[in-house]
Structure formats: C-alpha cells, structure tokens
Design a protein that fits this description.
2 domains, 56% helix, 11 helices, Endonuclease III, domain 1, 216 residues
Length: 216
Amino acid sequence: MIRKKKLSEILNVLQILEKIYPDACCALDYQTPWQLLAATILSAQCTDRQVNIVTRGLFEQFPDPYSLAGASLEEIENLIRSTGFFRNKAKNLIGCAAAIVACHEGKVPQVIEDLVALPGVGRKTANVVLGNAFGIPGLAVDTHVKRLVRRLGWSKEQDPERIEQDLCHTLPQSCWTQTSHLLIHHGRNLCKAQRPLCSSCPVQTLCPRIGVNKAL
C-alpha cells in the first residue's frame, strides 16, 4: 500500500498535470451510460479514435440494450470488425445487453459488483462507466495508468486491481476519476511506453525512477 506521506507528493503531481491537461476527460463519444459501456468494451486493444468511428454506425442502428440484445452475432461482428477481436467483442456486447435487459430492466447498473458481473466488463470498464456516466468515483487502471503509477513509484504492484486499491486507499474519492484521465493523457502524450519524453516532462523532478523505468 502507498505510504500516507506520499499523498502530498501525489497530489502535487496531479496538480501539475491538471495545468498541462486542463481538458483531460474521457475520449470516447457517447450519449448514454449504455453507449459508454459498449464503447469501453470495444476500446480493448483499439484506439479511442477508431472506436468513435465504429460506434457512430453501431449506435445509429442499436442505440440501447433492448435493440442490441436482439441483434444477430454476424451483424454486430460486421459493424465492429475494425476494432479487432471483433468476434469476442460482438459476443460480449450482445451478452451484456441481454443481461442488462433481463436483470436490470434495461438500465446500466450503478454498482461495481453488478457491472463486473456483466459479460465483457472488468473493473477498468466498470470504473470508466461509474466515473464518467454516473459521476460516481471510479479509478480506471488501464495500461497507461499502470505504467505511470509504477514509474512514479506510487505502487509496486503489477495487478491492475491491486494498483487500483493502492491509489483508492490513499487518494480522496473526489480525485479518483480525474486521476485516471490525467495519467492516461500524460501517458499518451509524454510518458510513452517505449520512448518516454522525459526531458519534456513537467513532473520529471518528482519521478523517483525516471531513469530506471524508461524500459517499463
């Protein structure tokens, strides 16, 4: 677990990142909680930009769980093919929609335990939906968040759920959702996986492993 004396240091980093990325937010296009849930499922191993292109057509034909639950697998596969792993994603989308209709009266649940029980929904996806669609604090740990948290020395864990626990046990709930956005933006723009732009990083003086973790 993160030691409490690190809290002020972490908040300092987040304040700096807020100045660099004042518009940091979810990059997926959506109108409803269901559409955000579906888009997040599609975003696995795919760019948000490509997902947004695909969901325009998907949501036009299947805007809600009721309509998608009754769709054919082949039809959904063809619509989402360019997102990769389309067969598994199509199966999960239809299964997720059907479960929401059958168990939640067609409404996306607002409890994380109910969300992760849906086909294709893990904690990252659940936290994205909670934080952005419902305003319920949720700290989504994707590959960018995992990489930056370890580089900054905020957690030594490898498992995303344990990283989430480390951060949530330390940070105020009001910071959870935006922390994900800020770290994701910084990971995409400067703290890249293969070649981090450390010389341009506004928080490099607060990164205790800046040289050691360039290969992470």
